[in-house]
């Protein structure tokens, strides 16, 4: 956590006044530390004494720097370690230090840099360090300088290294490809697969920096499931375009538990190695070794991407035994895979490609439609998947006695099958907290239901296994169901794999009615589908049989409602009353945020905002959700100095609240199909109450749209001097071919033109 304690310009007002001074070197320490104040002098001293440099960049207002001076640099063990460094402290705000601060791209304080006598960065830390962390920081970097005043091993690539050919191609990169600030110029993957599906791969990823201000350059870092994958850095180099540079010592790499260094439940690791900030023309060259266990024994699955990123030189080589059933399937990749039989009887596949232009994404389409590359896989059937997952769950669905007792009480209370299902779901969703984390044994095997019940938390497969066990104990037929976004978008059974599924729900069948239950979605009415995967294909696990089904479509049961009433005055102003109501899934997603909000503070901020505009808040009211009222309602009433656009004899106003979809987003030529996801209905009711004697000069035009992907309507009425608009807007789940581009664009155009239609009101003469 120490690295996050920094002083930036945004915290200036929270720090000491600018008149304060940097503490004199060693003023708080046990001994006076020999801090230099000139960077060039530090370089000369380092070359003379053959020592590394510790550069402390700070300001005269940073409280964290002062705390580190008082506490960390005062520690006797830290001071002993500092004797092996040339110490220099620079004030980032002094003109004499401007070029140094810019060279090292320092923007937060304190920043500590370990440098060699050439001024090259060997290590860096942004933020406060306590004595323990400071000792670790100094000691691990000091070790790099033993017998080596540079602190690194110098590198010169051989002339035949593929980097040089890639750099020649990179010169042709378009400006469009330069937007991220870097380009991946080498993406090499050399993999050897064993008969049992285990594989070992050497991975080389090389990045060319195209912009000094690049902030998104990938660092050598990965998160991985340690039960299946082990990653080590073999070589990390910083090079110039001549292939010269230095090796970053991989002993500095950290492998940490991604969630907690103390937790025994999670087994997701993160390996990282910090490298200095790179400049234009520099190259980051990372070589890693990967060792993987297959999820299903003797199986293999891998996607090799050739088109979704700017890639100058892509090269994958797979070597596998002759009898290993590896197959491949290209998608939008015209380059063929070369095949070679090796002397030992094994087979080698190789694919070399290049992609010099980034992809232009089109609105309302899926990433799977853009994906270009080759899938390498061993063939699996739905039955193979079912046998595998049934085996993972075997023996883990046994309910403990206390759970059976509670279930009998539920069954005695509820006789209707749907009511029993609802009671089971209410039990699990209220008692078992959902966590979206991978567990230690693997990221696919659920925990035993007795453990889930005792811990009172679990992920989707833990909760679903519990629901299935409860249903079966109640005499209800129930099965686990596997689903995922990729399988939903591309249910290709030829390349069926575990990697296509990332969620688990339950299918329950009773009295001839089929229900799909998702305890991870939280409390909800049985029979209502979660819209994210409604209408999508999924895999039902029926013992050792797998069956692909299409989930029911999403039927919106909730209307997100907004009501706006404007009482216009003869002067062109008016009183606006706005009521917003959230319920259903939209409320569930934001419930905690709303309940934790400081409504009084928000009201004051709103009041200040309208005061600047000449308005005034008259009333605010928040109706919080309760057990018997599953909606949140916000009422705001305000006086406005004017309504719409003032005209000589009245005003002009537009009515409508739903988002405008710009039809110009859709190009004339579209390549990929449309994929629309279902939404709840958004309803807006607006009323404009005209003062006596006012006239509506422009008659409103209603509109109704009924398309496979959109149901929308705007109905106007004008009666008793009240202009009323009732608006409904709802996307439907649909997949349309790219050839329907004009139809989609015309639909959005008609909706936008109606929404932007202005209504002119003539006020009575004063």
Average residue-wise pLDDT: 87
Strand content: 25-35%
End-to-end span in angstroms? 67 Å
Radius of gyration, whole Å: 32 Å
Strand order, sheet with most strands? 5-10-9-13-7-6-15-18-17
* Proportion in helices: 10-25%
Helical/strand content category = alpha+beta
The number of E-state strands comes to 40
What does this structure look like?
The protein is of the alpha+beta class and 766 residues long. A nine-stranded mixed beta sheet has the order 5-10-9-13-7-6-15-18-17, covered by helices on one side. Helix 3 runs parallel beside helix 5 and helix 10 (417-431) packs antiparallel against helix 12 (460-473). It is globular, with a radius of gyration of 32 Å. The N and C termini lie far apart (67 Å).
């Amino acid at each position: 956590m120490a690295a996050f304690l920094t002083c930036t310009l945004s915290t200036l007002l929270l720090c000491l006044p600018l008149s304060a001074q940097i503490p004199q070197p060693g003023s708080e320490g046990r001994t006076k530390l020999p801090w230099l104040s000139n960077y060039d002098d530090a370089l000369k001293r380092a070359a003379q004494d053959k020592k590394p440099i510790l550069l402390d960049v700070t300001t005269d207002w940073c409280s964290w720097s002062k705390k580190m001076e008082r506490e960390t640099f005062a520690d006797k063990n830290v001071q002993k370690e500092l004797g092996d460094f040339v110490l220099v402290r620079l004030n980032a705000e002094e003109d004499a230090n401007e070029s140094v601060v810019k060279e090292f791209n320092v923007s937060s304080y304190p920043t500590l840099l370990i440098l060699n006598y050439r001024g090259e960065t060997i290590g860096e830390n942004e933020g406060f360090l306590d004595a323990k962390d400071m000792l670790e920081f100094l000691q691990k970097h000091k070790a790099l300088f033993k017998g080596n005043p540079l602190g690194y091993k110098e590198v010169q690539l051989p002339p035949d290294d593929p980097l040089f050919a890639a750099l020649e191609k990179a010169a042709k990169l378009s400006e469009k490809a330069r937007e991220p600030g870097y380009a991946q110029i080498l993406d090499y993957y050399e993999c050897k697969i064993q008969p049992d599906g285990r594989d070992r791969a050497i991975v080389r990823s090389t990045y060319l920096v195209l912009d000094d201000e690049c902030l998104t350059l990938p660092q050598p870092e990965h998160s991985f499931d340690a039960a299946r994958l082990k990653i080590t850095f073999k070589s990390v180099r910083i090079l110039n375009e001549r292939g010269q540079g230095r090796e970053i010592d991989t002993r500095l790499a950290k492998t940490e538990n991604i969630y907690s260094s103390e937790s025994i439940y999670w087994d997701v690791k993160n390996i990282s190695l910090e490298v200095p900030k790179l400049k234009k023309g520099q190259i980051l060259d990372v070589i890693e070794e990967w060792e993987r266990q297959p999820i299903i024994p003797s199986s293999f699955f891998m996607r090799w991407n050739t088109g979704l990123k700017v890639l100058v030189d892509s090269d994958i080589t797979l070597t596998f035994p002759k009898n290993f059933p590896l197959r491949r399937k290209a998608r939008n990749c015209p380059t063929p895979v070369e095949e070679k039989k090796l002397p030992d009887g094994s087979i080698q596949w190789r694919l070399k490609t290049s992609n010099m232009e980034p992809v232009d994404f089109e609105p309302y389409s899926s990433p799977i439609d853009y994906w270009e590359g080759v899938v390498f896989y061993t063939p699996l059937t739905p039955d193979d998947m079912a046998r595998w997952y049934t085996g993972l769950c075997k023996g883990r669905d046994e309910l403990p006695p206390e759970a059976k007792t509670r279930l009998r009480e539920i069954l005695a209370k509820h006789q209707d099958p749907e009511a029993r299902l609802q009671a089971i779901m209410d039990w699990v969703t209220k008692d078992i907290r959902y966590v979206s984390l991978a567990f230690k044994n693997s990221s696919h095997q659920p925990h035993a239901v007795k453990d889930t019940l005792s811990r009172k938390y679990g992920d989707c497969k833990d909760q679903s296994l519990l629901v299935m066990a409860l249903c079966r104990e109640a005499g209800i037929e129930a099965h686990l169901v596997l689903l995922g976004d990729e399988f939903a978008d591309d249910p290709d059974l030829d390349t069926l794999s575990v990697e296509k599924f990332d969620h688990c729900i339950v299918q329950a069948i009773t009295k001839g009615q089929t229900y799909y239950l998702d305890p991870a979605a939280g409390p909800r009415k049985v029979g209502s589908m979660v819209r994210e995967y409604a209408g999508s294909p999924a895999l039902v696990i029926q013992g050792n049989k797998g069956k692909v089904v299409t989930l029911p479509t999403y039927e919106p049961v909730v209307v997100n409602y907004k009501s706006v009433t404007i009482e216009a005055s003869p002067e062109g102003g008016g009183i606006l009353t706005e009521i917003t109501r959230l319920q259903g899934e939209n409320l569930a997603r934001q419930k905690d945020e709303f309940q934790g909000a400081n409504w009084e503070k928000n009201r004051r901020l709103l009041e200040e905002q309208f005061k600047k505009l000449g308005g005034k808040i008259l009333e605010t009211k928040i109706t919080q959700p309760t057990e018997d009222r599953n909606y949140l309602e916000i009422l705001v009433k305000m006086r406005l100095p004017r309504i719409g656009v003032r005209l000589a004899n009245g005003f002009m106003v537009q009515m409508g609240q739903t988002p405008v979809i710009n039809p110009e987003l859709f190009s004339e030529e579209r390549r990929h199909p449309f994929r629309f996801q279902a939404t709840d209905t958004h309803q807006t009711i607006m009323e404009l109450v005209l003062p006596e004697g006012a006239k509506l000069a422009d008659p409103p035009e209603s509109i109704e749209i009924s398309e496979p992907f959109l149901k929308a309507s705007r109905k106007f009425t004008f009666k008793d001097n009240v202009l009323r608009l009732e608006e409904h807007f709802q996307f439907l789940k649909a997949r349309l071919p790219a050839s329907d581009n004009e139809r989609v664009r015309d639909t959005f155009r008609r909706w936008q033109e109606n929404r932007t239609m202005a209504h002119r009101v003539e006020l009575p003469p004063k």
